Amino acid sequence: MNSLDPRSLIAMGGFMALVMGLVLGFMRRYYPPSILGLGYWALAPAVWLIATVFFAAPGPWPQEMGRWLGNGLILLGFVLFHVGCRCFFGQPAKWRRIVVAFALVMLCLAWFTGPEPSYRMRVAIVTAAIAVVHSSTLVFLWLSGNRNFPVRMVQVTLALHLCVLLVRLQSVLSVPEVGDLMDASTVQSFYLGAYVLAVLLLSIGAVLMATDRVRTELEHMATHDVLTGTLNRRAILDFCEDEHERSLRYGQAFSLMMIDLDHFKAINDTHGHQHGDRVLAHFAECTRAALRRADRFGRYGGEEFLVLLPNTATEAALPVAERIRTALTTGHALDCTASIGVTQWRGPEDTVDAMLGRADAAMYQAKERGRNQTCAA
Ligand SMILES: Nc1nc2c(ncn2[C@@H]2O[C@H](COP(=O)(O)OP(=O)(O)OP(=O)(O)O)[C@@H](O)[C@H]2O)c(=O)[nH]1
């Protein structure tokens, strides 16, 4: 079987690193600053590209020195990828540990380049070091708990490359001497091919992870209220329609709860609009804490909020309303009171609009009766 020329493979890796470095660099520039880690992910391919130059191009430096630097830069690229992953998930890099370990590896490589030249030992050291970096990236990603496609793709790429590295390490340690990097053997082509693929797939994985995060952030912005963090009007109404459809299909009742803060205009007028905003945020936090996971809570408009209680009839919704009112009066400086109107789905003829109307009417009834209470309709 004809083996691929190692120089061509290295050049291919360099070209891919160039393209992916540019893509990630542009993303770093134009994506929201909340997407962390892109800088390190963009640096990794740039470093791999420079490594390619040291390996493949004859330069003014001695060949052995070029190999030493090339190996170091390849390792550094994977370290930067690891740091990018940590930053992306909001974890600081352990720089002290990284710098010490990297310096040690470079010293060992220098030893087996100059005083005690051994290509075999250099291969073993670099391979083992990259395997350690891959393992810690893998463990970190696993512990991050994220299981979406881009993370899975990066994990699979790291795991496969790790397998190749371990095979290489084992084979390099089990024979007295191995061929040179530029020997056109099938085994060498396999290792270099795996490296090129790893460079490409890890960079693509980084692109996908960042893009997925931007999509999630945009989705959140489109469905949530900035001030209170609750669902916005459109999103909570969408949930109501979904629940209504479910009730039509399965015949299970659900309840809606309209909540309006009492005398909120007076709060604004007395303490200022900003204080009013803080009261709204505090109200949202307390209410969220009083609800179950399956309940949906959204800002209907101004100081009026809507709660959707799936699978819940009025009798079960009323204690929830009381729980919310209790949660709002705990002695906190931002405490307030609220009037609540509750209604439940009444059967196939009932609509979300009709339910909203009834919940609103019940809430106004609560206001008329003196506020800070719940009425059902
Ligand atoms: N600070 C702040 N105020 C808001 C916001 N949205 C609406 N408001 C204010 O909420 C007040 C609502 O006042 P009203 O509708 O008269 O109701 P109220 O004073 O709560 O009186 P009752 O509902 O009858 O108890 C208005 O002054 C609005 O300007 C907001 O996002 N932040």
UniProtKB/TrEMBL annotation:
A Pfam family annotated for this UniProt entry: GGDEF
Transmembrane segments: 6-26, 38-56, 68-88, 95-113, 119-142, 149-169, 189-211
Gene3D superfamilies attached to this UniProt entry: 3.30.70.270
Enzyme class: transferase
Domain named GGDEF: residues: 252-377
Keywords: Membrane, Transmembrane, Transmembrane helix
Keyword Cytoplasm recorded: no
The keyword Transmembrane belongs to this UniProt entry's keyword annotation: yes
Substrates-to-products reaction catalysed: 2 GTP = 3',3'-c-di-GMP + 2 diphosphate
A Gene Ontology molecular function term of the record: diguanylate cyclase activity
E.C. number: 2.7.7.65
Name recorded for this polypeptide: diguanylate cyclase
The organism of origin for this protein: Simplicispira hankyongi
